[in-house]
């Protein structure tokens, strides 16, 4: 597909070899020395773009490292690959699809062509339909079956049809209409549906069934049970029309389910599930925060899209994050990437990025189907600070592993209460400092610590991190942050020459589950042909299962 793939793999290029040699020089250097030897380091290795500030100076690299990594990106054809994505080329090769989530946030004045057709007008047509519907719900003009306004919105979807809107709703709750409750039901474990519905009145509840394919087992099971719950209580098929809408590209399956075609919001096969927050998959969010604020979020996305598309790589936020990640993954051998937002509202951001990154770049064959000879996507994990500090930061500070961290914080609080914000910010600033500079044996000894206690109190430091600082968490900033990571993941996938937009790895387990369902449900002992371990587990489950597993809503 690109220059590298045709000739050789990226790890066999001269650019990679140069980085390898450079790594031998840099690996032993301590951040304390890197800062001491270069007084301009903090300013040289930081960058502000549209109010988003990235300080990457507390990383184990030099300006030369960035120069060499940029050369690697050039060699991998990143510039051409970015252009190919924005031009609607079929860059998702294993699924033979274009990848155009950037079109979802393009202003109406722009055009993005797919096979010669501009997709932007279609995007805006659906957005207007969403806005009209959201406004009707928000103004209480839309009435439920018994004439009451909608008080509860339940999004039913999984994976990309859940994680994005759920994360964004949680992040932007402060901008939402508090009169209504919002629930996100994804798990096929009935517990989640049961817990979501226990305080909802059916005639005040709207279900948004989000499924691009409308064939997903978990979503359809939850949607059917939700419909049963509604009809058991309202006892009239006509109620479905007032209480169910769908987001899907499969109009036929939606119709079979019984949802009014007028209440279907379209999406397209050129939007991948984990990149679909800005499509109609974000309908619940739009109902929560309103079309205007939803538009502000899209503007934040678009600003970073434009920056990514046009800025030189060494001044390009997503590219820098990607290159720094590659430096740790492929040269230092780091296995994970911690995401540490200092905002409770970003509670679900690590889980969202987990899918975005791990489903996109968790690949071991390249675009030509050949096994890669280098490490690809990291294990992404994290929790909001300061909670994580009292849980797992110990390992990052004093464990045996290298854990690159992204600290994300906001200068202004959403709620100014007492001195909370200063305490939060102080911790947000202190952790990267402690990780980078540590505490030497001499410092510990000078504090009068008994000799036998010294070793346990020494902090080696030299633990790398990025600090991302914005003024305040707003719809616009959230859009910027998500786009930043989307393009980071894309950049890394490009350099690794993998398909960041397929997810074949989720298929096998789904297929095997389909075979096990009848084995669990069979009245008499079924013949089992799995491995001995799985056979024994199926028999054990059958022996322990209750007789009636149908959905029951307890009145407790
Ligand atoms: C994401 C994946 C996946 C998908 C879910 C739900 O990129 O494609 O997480 O979003 O499997 O799929 P449906 O929207 O088709 O139900």
Automatic annotation (TrEMBL):
SUPFAM superfamilies attached to this UniProt entry: SIS domain (SSF53697)
Active site: 359, 390, 510
UniProt key word Kinase: no
Highest taxon, organism lineage: Bacteria
GO biological process, one term: glucose 6-phosphate metabolic process
UniProt pathway: Carbohydrate degradation; glycolysis; D-glyceraldehyde 3-phosphate and glycerone phosphate from D-glucose: step 2/4; Carbohydrate biosynthesis; gluconeogenesis
Enzyme Commission number, as recorded: 5.3.1.9
Keyword terms: Cytoplasm, Gluconeogenesis, Glycolysis, Isomerase
Keyword Isomerase set for record: yes
InterPro entries assigned: G6P_Isomerase, G6P_Isomerase_C, Phosphoglucose_isomerase_CS, SIS_dom_sf, SIS_PGI_1, SIS_PGI_2
Gene Ontology terms for molecular function: carbohydrate derivative binding; glucose-6-phosphate isomerase activity; monosaccharide binding
Signal sequence range: none
Reaction equations catalysed: alpha-D-glucose 6-phosphate = beta-D-fructose 6-phosphate
One Gene Ontology cellular component annotation held by this UniProt entry: cytosol
EC category: isomerase
Family membership noted in the UniProt record: Belongs to the GPI family.
Described purpose of this protein according to its UniProt entry: Catalyzes the reversible isomerization of glucose-6-phosphate to fructose-6-phosphate.
Protein name, per record: Glucose-6-phosphate isomerase
Organism, as annotated: Candidatus Aeolococcus gillhamiae
């Amino acid at each position: 597909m690109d220059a590298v793939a045709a000739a050789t793999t990226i790890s066999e290029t001269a650019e990679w070899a140069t980085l390898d040699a450079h790594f031998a020089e840099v690996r032993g250097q301590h951040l304390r020395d890197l800062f001491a030897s270069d007084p301009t380091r903090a300013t040289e290795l930081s960058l502000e773009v549209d109010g988003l500030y990235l300080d990457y100076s507390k990383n184990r690299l030099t300006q030369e490292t960035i120069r060499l990594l940029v050369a690697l990106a050039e060699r991998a054809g990143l510039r051409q690959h970015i252009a190919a994505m924005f031009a609607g080329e079929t860059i998702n090769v294993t699924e033979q699809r274009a990848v155009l989530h950037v079109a979802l946030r393009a202003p109406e004045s722009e055009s993005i062509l797919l096979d010669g057709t501009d997709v932007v007008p279609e995007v805006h047509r659906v957005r207007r339909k969403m806005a009209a519907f959201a406004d009707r719900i928000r103004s209480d003009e839309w009435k439920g079956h018994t004439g009451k306004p909608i008080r509860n919105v339940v999004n039913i979807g999984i994976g990309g049809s859940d994680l994005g809107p759920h994360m964004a709703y949680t992040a932007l709750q402060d901008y939402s209409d508090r009169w209504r409750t919002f629930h996100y039901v994804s798990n096929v474990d009935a517990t989640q549906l049961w817990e979501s519905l226990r305080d909802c009145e059916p005639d005040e509840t709207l279900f948004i069934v989000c499924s691009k394919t409308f064939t997903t087992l978990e979503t359809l099971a939850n949607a059917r049970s939700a419909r049963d719950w509604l009809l058991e209580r309202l006892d009239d098929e006509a109620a479905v029309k007032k209480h169910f809408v769908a987001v899907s590209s499969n109009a036929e399956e939606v119709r079979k389910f019984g949802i009014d075609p007028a209440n279907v919001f379209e999406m397209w096969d050129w939007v991948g599930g984990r990149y679909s927050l800005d499509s109609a998959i974000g309908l619940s969010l739009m109902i929560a925060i309103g079309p205007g604020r939803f538009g502000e979020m899209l503007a934040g996305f678009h600003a970073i899209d434009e920056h990514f598309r046009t800025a030189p790589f060494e001044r390009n936020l997503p590219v820098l994050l990607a290159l720094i990640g590659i430096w740790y993954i492929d040269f230092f051998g780091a296995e994970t990437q911690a995401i540490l937002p200092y905002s409770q509202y970003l509670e679900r951001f690590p889980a969202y990025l987990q899918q975005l990154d791990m489903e996109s770049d968790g690949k071991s064959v390249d675009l030509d189907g050949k096994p890669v000879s280098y490490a690809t996507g990291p294990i992404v994990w994290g929790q909001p600070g300061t909670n994580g500090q009292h849980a797992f930061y110990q390992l990052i500070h004093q464990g045996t592993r290298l854990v690159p961290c992204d600290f994300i914080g906001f200068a202004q609080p959403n709620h100014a209460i007492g001195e909370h914000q200063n305490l939060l910010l102080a911790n947000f600033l202190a952790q990267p400092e402690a990780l980078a500079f540590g505490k030497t044996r001499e410092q510990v000894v000078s504090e009068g610590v008994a000799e036998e206690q010294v070793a346990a109190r020494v902090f080696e430091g030299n633990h790398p991190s990025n600090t991302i600082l914005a003024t305040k968490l707003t719809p616009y900033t959230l859009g910027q942050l998500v786009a930043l990571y989307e393009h980071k993941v894309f950049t890394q996938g490009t350099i690794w020459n993998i398909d960041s937009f397929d997810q074949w790895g989720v298929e096998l387990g789904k297929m095997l589950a389909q075979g096990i369902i009848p084995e669990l449900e069979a009245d008499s002992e079924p013949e089992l042909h799995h491995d001995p371990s799985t056979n024994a587990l199926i028999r054990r489950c059958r022996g322990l299962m209750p007789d009636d597993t149908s959905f029951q809503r307890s009145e407790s």
